[in-house]
Amino acid sequence: MPLSHPRRSALSEQVIAALRAQIASGEWPVGSRIPTEPELVEQLGVARNTVREAVRALAHNGLLDIRQGSGTYVVATSELAGVMHRRFAGADPRHIAELRSSLESWAARLAARRRTEKDLKQLDALLLRREEAWESRDAEAFVTADATFHMAVVAASHNDVMTALYADLGEVLRDWLRDDVGGDMSPETHMDHSRLVDAIRAGDEATAAEEAAAYPLACKPGRFTASAGD
Q: Which residues pair with 72 in a beta bridge?
């Protein structure tokens, strides 16, 4: 439905909210190119300058990346996610792995305690999708499938704060995973996540936590550089 409002500032805020909603809902997933400026003008029924202002505002907040000659792409699902991505994009991979291990371990422990039948069905479906992505040898498809699976594990903890924090770190963790997977998708590098799902299903908190904690730290040999404290 076209947007309309007599005041330019209020109208601009409406457009920003509309674009943000498209991103937050997953209609425009991270990595996707949003519609062109003329397309957005037609969809929203507002002036080109209003659309341009809204897009620039979301780019400034870290949700969008304007690439001259290519288009505008979604890089984060919220303002905080954009800040997280900018803040930690160059972080030591070891530290990202340790953070992910800590978060996912506690989330898996809680998931084993609180999971519902709906959660288990979701995990089963996403585990299958993850395996299919691995078999396809499509690295980007696997990164997406793996990230979605782990997000579902965290969501099964039914801890809203932990889930929101993990989601805001999502693109940082996906960058880490892209680097870890690289082009090496050979059978010997594959990590089976079925034991994690089995532990959550059985309500085995200790095993679920152990399995989840181990995955991020089981990286390719030489991935991390030893630090002075090791």
A: 66
